[in-house]
Specification:
alpha+beta; four-stranded antiparallel sheet; 8 strands; 18% helix; globular
């Protein structure tokens, strides 16, 4: 059972959004790990830009899952907002209050962005969350609120 739980968590955290795998993006691991982790390493990372085209993107949400030292496979979540300036991507600041695995479906608006994560549903094992939760992040305060 423990192996199955570890495998489910690893699979849930492994996938990167297709946009982060395309050519034209900077070294996203270096950018995310240097701004969102204490160790400079992470179990998984996600880059959720406002545009899939690297030349057109101006804002992005970065998410990393960092191993908690001394734990048996547990991770913490760190989230940050980024904006592109003339010199490249700049860390705007951390986002508070966002939880869950496998962030997806980003939708940017002038004052906020929405994103979906997977969380534990009723009676689900800890290994494999399936409940889709939608979040709204206020871009001015960088605070996430659960919408459903």
């Amino acid at each position: 059972m423990r192996r199955r739980a570890a495998l489910c968590v690893a699979l849930a955290l492994w996938a990167l959004p297709a946009s982060a795998q395309q050519a034209g993006w900077p070294n996203l691991d270096q950018l995310l790990f240097s701004t969102l982790t204490a160790s400079g390493r992470a179990e998984a990372s996600f880059w959720l830009p406002d545009q899939n085209d690297p030349a057109a993107a101006t804002r992005a949400l970065g998410v990393v899952y960092e191993h908690i030292p001394g734990s048996a496979g547990s991770v913490s979540i760190a989230v940050g907002l980024y904006q592109r300036i003339a010199e490249g991507w700049q860390f705007v600041g951390p986002v508070e209050g966002l939880f869950g695995n496998t962030p997806s479906d980003p939708a940017f608006a002038p004052t906020h962005m929405d994103v979906t994560t997977l969380m534990l549903g009723p009676n689900e094992p800890r290994c494999c969350p399936t409940l889709q939760v939608r979040w709204r992040i206020d871009l001015a305060t960088r605070v996430a609120q659960r919408l459903n």
